[in-house]
Amino acid sequence: MSQTETAPARKRALPPLMTLTDAAANRLRHLYSAGQSGKLLRVGLSTKGCSGLSYDMTWVDAAGPGDEVVTDRGITVLVDRKATLFLIGTTMDFEETALTSSFTFTNPNEKGRCGCGESFHV
After folding, report:
1. Please, where are the H alpha helices in the chain?
2. Domain residue spans of the chain
3. What is the pLDDT of residues 43-77, one digit of tens each?
4. What pTM value is reported for the model?
5. 18-121: what fold?
6. The sheet that has 52-60: what strands, in order across it?
């Protein structure tokens, strides 16, 4: 009898949990050194709006047991572990216009957004 060995299936690499653009990293670098010195930004999701989910950002003193630590471009951001499956591959950006400035997210898991852009669904 001969036995045929099969090679174990290669696992596909997951994309990074979250990446930062240069603009987002620069803005966070400024915030971390100014008014939010000693704090970290935690990104999570909350139930909100007509599509169901909304990005939630809060300042915390330190990473907690339910946080994933993401470091990109020399900047550390925390991601709520309950949100990780919804955020895999997301890019965080910072945009400034004549009237507003805000962090924005490009999330490959989003299937749609509500009309006002307040919430999304996966």
Report:
1. 22-33, 84-87
2. 18-121
3. 999 886 665 788 899 999 999 999 999 999 999 99
4. 0.80
5. Hypothetical Protein Aq_1857; Chain: A; (2.60.300)
6. 67-72, 75-80, 40-48, 52-60, 120-121, 112-113
